[in-house]
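Hi all, posting the design record for the shared folder.

TITLE: backbone redesign
STEP: 1 of 1
STRUCTURE INPUT:
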């Protein structure tokens, strides 16, 4: 087994990964606080948020959010049971139904807006806007790079 040489860029990326884990945990904690008063969980909000603009099959949500299809399926089934979402026929695939929020699901997410904006405005006020924009750009590049590395050799990206 060949050991790859250590690089400065690799060390910096490792630190970015560790800070990302820490940040993700902090965002989940904040989301739980925001969602509890409206009867949601952070995971429910995450799944509903993935389909606010267009319905997707569960596998599409899982891919978009880098979650397992099984975990998204469990959450989707609970959301349907609670009347916050529904399954629709999928013209592109008979068995993979589309998932979307119901009016109650949209209302639940909408009721989070004030808390979400208060949180994001408070946090973002402590970081320069241009740096936030650069961070977003770099995060998108990292997602693409990780997806490229994970993709089997010869597989297309699209």
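Okay, here is what came back for every position:
SEQUENCE:
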């Amino acid at each position: 087994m060949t050991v790859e040489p250590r690089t400065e860029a690799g060390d910096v990326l490792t630190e970015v990964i560790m800070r990302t884990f820490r940040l993700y945990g902090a965002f989940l904690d904040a989301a739980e606080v925001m969602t509890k008063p409206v009867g949601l969980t952070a995971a429910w909000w995450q799944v509903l948020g993935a389909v606010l603009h267009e319905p997707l099959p569960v596998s599409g949500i899982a891919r978009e959010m880098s979650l397992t299809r099984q975990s998204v399926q469990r959450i989707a089934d609970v959301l349907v049971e609670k009347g916050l979402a529904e399954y629709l026929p999928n013209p592109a695939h008979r068995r993979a139904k589309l998932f979307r929020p119901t009016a109650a699901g949209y209302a639940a997410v909408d009721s989070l807006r004030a808390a979400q904006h208060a949180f994001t405005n408070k946090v973002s006020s402590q970081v320069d806007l241009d740096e936030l924009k650069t961070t977003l750009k770099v995060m998108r590049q990292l997602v693409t790079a990780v997806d490229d590395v994970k993709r089997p050799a010869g597989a297309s990206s699209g």
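COMMENT: The mean pLDDT is 93.
Let me know if anyone wants the other runs.
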